């Protein structure tokens, strides 16, 4: 039988199918900066206060918008417009017609493969609640995070 993500558009998926496209990498839970001049968006290694860095999940997913008003809720209508979404993201991959990666839990059958493949942020981030001077510290962490990854284009 052909997997649902190969036969349905994002808009045709049930809520359960939609949610299962999340690979659990945690990349979308990182705080990001946008260069006002270029529009480039780059991540930091600082995660949202609701992010659990061990499980790579939100600790209050159902109420996240109430606690973090600028949290962006992914929908079939906005996935294509969010250019900062990682190229590895299951939602983005399906939207772009690339299918899911072999390490994606729906393909591998395990929630751990995203971590063993080195795609997740597990063990690599710090909480925004741990920072003494949030703005300066987050900017520093952003530069360090992108340098470690050789990300000079900041995208």
Structure description:
With about 160 residues, this protein is of the alpha+beta class. It has one domain. Helix content is about 30%, strand content about 10%. The chain contains 7 helices and 5 strands. The strands form 2 sheets. It has a 3-stranded mixed sheet with strand order 1-2-5. The chain is globular, with a radius of gyration of 16 Å. About 25% of the residues are buried.
Question: Topology of this protein?
Answer:
Layout: H1 4-7, H2 15-20, E1 30-34, E2 41-47, E3 51-52, E4 57-58, H3 64-67, H4 90-95, H5 105-108, H6 113-116, E5 126-127, H7 134-148
Parallel strand pairs: 2-5
Antiparallel strand pairs: 1-2, 3-4
Please supply descriptive tags for the structure shown above:
single chain, 155 residues, alpha+beta, three-stranded mixed β-sheet, two-stranded antiparallel ribbon, 7 helices, disordered C terminus
């Amino acid at each position: 039988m052909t997997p649902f993500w190969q036969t349905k558009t994002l808009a045709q998926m049930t809520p359960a199918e939609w949610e299962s496209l999340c690979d659990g990498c945690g990349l979308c839970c990182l705080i990001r900066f946008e260069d006002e001049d270029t529009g480039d968006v780059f991540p930091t290694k600082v995660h949202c206060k609701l992010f659990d860095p061990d499980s790579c999940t939100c600790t209050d997913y159902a109420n996240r918008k109430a606690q973090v008003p600028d949290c962006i809720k992914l929908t079939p209508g906005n996935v294509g417009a969010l250019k900062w979404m990682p190229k590895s993201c299951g939602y983005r991959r399906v939207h772009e017609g690339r299918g899911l990666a072999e390490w994606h839990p729906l393909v591998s059958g395990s929630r751990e493969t995203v971590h063993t493949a080195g795609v997740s942020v597990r063990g690599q981030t710090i909480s925004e609640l741990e920072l003494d001077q949030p703005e300066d510290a987050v900017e520093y962490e952003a530069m360090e995070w992108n340098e470690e990854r050789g990300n000079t284009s900041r995208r």
